[in-house]
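In response to the reviewer comment on reproducibility (Comment 2.3), we provide here a single inverse folding case reported in full, input and output, so that an independent group could reproduce the run without further information from us. The structure tokens appear first.
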């Protein structure tokens, strides 16, 4: 069996036509921008004090260490015109969903958004800015 799915762009999110977000897919996989992340422990629970009956766990605050606010410069009707797929290939024992050594990538043109175009809101990404 040999499948060669095409790259597609799907619209979603936002509450009107001016605030639509887009996601990049190829086959069953959705692709994302790789981000640098900083994990800071903000609470650790020992078994006797664990809420919800979960024995020993830690809560983390996760913040980006790399830029994350980008606009995808692509035509949703013809994504193959400006985006390309590259299969690096799977090599044992790399995990297929490893964030650092992904066996496949999609190359795309991205445009950085500068503040205040897209910022943070309530400890997360603010609503998607108008296109």
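Designed residues, in position order:
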């Amino acid at each position: 069996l040999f499948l060669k799915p095409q790259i597609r762009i799907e619209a979603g999110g936002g509450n009107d036509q001016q605030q639509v977000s887009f996601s990049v897919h190829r086959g069953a996989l959705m692709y994302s921008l790789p981000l640098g992340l900083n994990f800071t422990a903000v609470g650790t629970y020992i078994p006797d004090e664990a809420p919800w009956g979960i024995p020993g766990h830690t809560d983390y605050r996760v913040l980006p260490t790399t830029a994350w606010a980008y606009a995808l410069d692509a035509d949703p009707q013809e994504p193959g015109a400006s985006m390309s797929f590259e299969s690096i290939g799977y090599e044992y024992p790399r995990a297929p969903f490893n964030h650092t050594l992904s066996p496949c990538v999609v190359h795309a043109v991205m445009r950085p958004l500068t503040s205040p175009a897209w910022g943070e809101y309530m400890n997360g990404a603010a609503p998607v800015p108008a296109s």
